[in-house]
Amino acid sequence: MAQWMKRIARDIKELKESGHVVYKDENMKEFDDDCDYKTFVVLLTSPPEGYYKGFTWRLRFEIQDKYPFKSPSVGFVDKIYHPNVDEASGTICLDVLNKNWSPACTVRHLVEQILPLFLSSPNPNDPLNPEAAQVLKSNVNAFEKKVQEHCKKHAYKGN
User: Fold this and answer.
1) Domain limits for position 26
2) Among 35, 93, 105, 151, which one carries the catalytic annotation?
3) Could you tell me the pLDDT band of residue 25, with boundaries at 50, 70 and 90?
4) Catalytic annotation on 35?
């Protein structure tokens, strides 16, 4: 087994042991040992505070052969109105996934620490969605209202 596969297998095991369900793909078929370790989906529930509270999204992870020395590619499957997410592709703009990645970071750390903080603290100064960034900068109440409407329509609602 390749080194990156050993590491991602360990990360997925750790994620499952901490209570997360790991899915094979967006169709929510549960991940098993026969699955390809290159891609998988995990649910992200927003923190209890902030603009996105009360909603859940599917996150797609794509693992590179150079993992853990190269970060996974992480994107939202479900549309999200967020200044740092490209709504069409689900691509996330986050330094820890780009220039500040460390091999010490695990998928569990991303799902339980980094990405919830990402939802709690959108950064309008580094946008992938300039319109959402502008609304957040100019009118926080309008931003919160738009986020809530968008979440009700697009967030993951289960099978």
Assistant:
1) 3-154
2) 93
3) confident
4) no
